[in-house]
Automatic annotation (TrEMBL):
TM region positions: none
Keywords: DNA recombination
Protein name: Tyr recombinase domain-containing protein
Domain Tyr recombinase: 1-173
Matching InterPro entries: DNA_brk_join_enz, Integrase-like_cat_sf, Integrase_catalytic
Claim: Glycosyltransferase is one of the keywords in the record: no
Highest taxon, organism lineage: Bacteria
Length: 183
């Protein structure tokens, strides 16, 4: 993967989705497919809505992690030899190139969180954590909507409506000052 800015190259990815690192050339990825479990099968499907398909910028931290994963995947592919089965160009696979079972992904996430001393939360809650951090960083709701891949701003605003006590006190303090109050 090359971090230089070049014309957009389709790459697939997203939460629970796949990302074709080999096709990623710029500092963004294109999300248009996802991995889903249906009964006993793991399926490679298009995203739920056309609004979910989009280019997303990748922060340097993500680029570094994807480079590391690419090197690991190449090692896995070499070690697996003829047993390698990756037919969709997935980044996150088993050591044989097959999609990671959702339950195994959840267990690996918890294990890594414990190893680093982080509080273990359900994997599905990481999206809400991201949203809460965007609120704390005062990111504009429309920007957050795009980052969070919400098709409707109403969904994003549900997260933004969850104001912390500190935020409420700060807002009331600003309102009081604007109205000439001194505290």
């Amino acid at each position: 993967m090359d971090a230089r800015a070049v014309p957009r190259a389709p790459a697939r990815g997203g939460a629970g989705a796949d990302l074709e690192v080999d096709r990623l050339r710029g500092r963004e990825l294109y999300v248009d497919h996802q991995i889903q479990r249906a009964g006993r099968q793991i399926l490679h499907r298009e995203t739920k809505t056309e609004d979910s398909d989009d280019f997303l910028p990748l922060p340097a931290l993500c680029l570094k992690a994807l480079r590391m994963r690419r090197a690991q995947k190449l090692g896995d592919r070499k070690a697996a030899g003829e047993l390698w089965q990756d037919s969709h160009g997935l980044v996150f696979t088993t050591k044989y190139g097959t999609p990671i079972e959702p339950g195994n992904l959840t267990r690996m996430f918890g294990l890594r969180a414990r190893r680093t001393g982080l509080r273990v939360i359900p994997l599905r809650n990481t999206r809400h954590t991201c949203a809460a951090l965007l609120v704390a960083l005062k990111v504009h709701p429309k920007v957050a909507q795009r980052i969070l891949r919400h098709s409707q701003i109403a969904m994003t605003m549900e997260v933004y409506a969850e104001a912390s006590e500190e935020a409420v006190r700060d807002a009331l303090g600003k309102l009081s000052e604007a109205m000439g109050g001194s505290g």
